[in-house]
């Protein structure tokens, strides 16, 4: 494993957009590792979040990498825009990409880390032929589109299967969990093989968001062997 400690990526989707600057500073000053940026188009998912102008505004003040989760159809059209708006990691949905291998190459050519997101119904085995080409797999543990949903328990098995799929061919693969992450399920997810946790409502609805990030970062676990 290249990273010895798991990473925490608070989802800005759950921030208070009327005081976004304060929430950016909170993440900057916290033990969080990345900013998780959810871009939705109202077509791939039944919701619209925010677009590149807002992301640029976040990038201006963020002191940590922007981990961008594109929940949009035809993401190829926007990769350059995404990079130019401050992305370090760009994750596209498997279900939105006809030529996934080409899309991953295009992301890397821009100098970004390339990620693939899987909806809850998409089996990890579909990544077998590109697993070597991926820096990060984002496992959706809710159906994408909204924050604050209930965690899908089946996710643990998917994480284990994914870690097994990557074993020996991409041991540095980052496995990121997105949706319904709390202190209740964090340790089990990490133990199953995840190493990046996205948290939206759990962080921003907490009385003390910074302390909640600290607790997520401090979660202790023993990595299960694949
Ligand atoms: C949902 C987004 C998530 C969302 C997670 O489509 O991809 O990143 O913000 O929110 P919580 O942590 O509240 O489930
Ligand atoms: Zn997300």
Q: Please give the count of helices.
A: 8
**Ligand types:** D-xylitol-5-phosphate, zinc ion
- Kindly report the name of the CATH homologous superfamily: Aldolase class I
Order of helices and strands: EHEHEHEHEEHEHEHH
Termini separation: 12 Å
* Classification by helices and strands: alpha/beta
CATH architecture designation = Alpha-Beta Barrel
Q: What is CATH's topology name?
A: TIM Barrel
Q: How much beta, percentage-wise?
A: 15-25%
In total, the number of domains comes to: 1
Pfam family, one: Ribul_P_3_epim
GO molecular function: D-ribulose-phosphate 3-epimerase activity; metal ion binding
Catalytic activity: D-ribulose 5-phosphate = D-xylulose 5-phosphate
Active site: 38, 178
Structure characteristics:
single chain, 226 residues, alpha/beta, TIM Barrel, manganese, zinc, EC 5.1.3.1, metal-binding
Strands, helices and their partners?
Layout: E1 7-10, H1 20-29, E2 35-40, H2 52-61, E3 66-71, H3 79-84, E4 87-93, H4 100-109, E5 113-118, E6 136-140, H5 155-166, E7 174-178, H6 186-192, E8 196-199, H7 201-204, H8 209-217
The chain binds D-xylitol-5-phosphate and zinc ion (ZN).
Describe the overall structure.
The chain is α/β, with parallel strands linked by helices and 226 residues long. Helices cover 30% and strands 19% of the residues. The protein has one domain: Aldolase class I (TIM Barrel, Alpha-Beta Barrel). The chain has an 8-stranded parallel β-sheet. It starts with 6 loop residues before the first strand and ends in a 9-residue tail after the last helix. The chain binds D-xylitol-5-phosphate and zinc ion. Residues 11, 36, 38, 69, 178, 198 line the site of zinc ion. Pathway: Carbohydrate degradation. It catalyses: D-ribulose 5-phosphate = D-xylulose 5-phosphate. InterPro entries: Aldolase_TIM, Ribul_P_3_epim, Ribul_P_3_epim-like, RibuloseP-bd_barrel.
């Amino acid at each position: 494993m290249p990273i010895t400690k798991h990473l925490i990526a608070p989802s800005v989707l759950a921030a208070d957009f009327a005081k976004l600057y304060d929430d950016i500073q909170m993440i900057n000053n916290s033990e969080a590792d990345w900013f998780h940026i959810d871009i939705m188009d109202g077509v791939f998912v039944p919701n619209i979040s925010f677009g590149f102008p807002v992301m640029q505004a976040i990038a201006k003040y963020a002191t940590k990498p922007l981990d961008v989760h594109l929940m949009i159809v035809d993401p190829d059209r926007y990769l350059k825009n995404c990079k130019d708006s401050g992305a370090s990691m760009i994750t596209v949905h498997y279900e939105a990409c006809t030529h996934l291998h080409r899309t991953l190459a295009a992301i890397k050519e821009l100098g970004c880390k390339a990620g693939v997101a899987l909806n809850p119904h998409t089996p990890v085995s579909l990544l077998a032929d590109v697993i070597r080409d991926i820096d990060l797999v984002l496992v959706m543990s809710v159906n994408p589109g909204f924050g604050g949903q209930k965690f899908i328990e089946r996710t643990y098995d998917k994480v284990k299967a994914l870690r097994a799929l990557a074993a020996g061919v991409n041991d540095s693969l980052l496995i990121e969990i997105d949706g319904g992450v709390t202190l209740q399920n964090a340790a089990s997810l990490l133990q199953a093989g995840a190493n990046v946790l996205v948290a939206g409502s759990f962080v921003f609805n907490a009385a003390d968001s910074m302390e909640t990030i600290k607790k997520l970062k401090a979660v202790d676990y023993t990595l299960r062997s694949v």
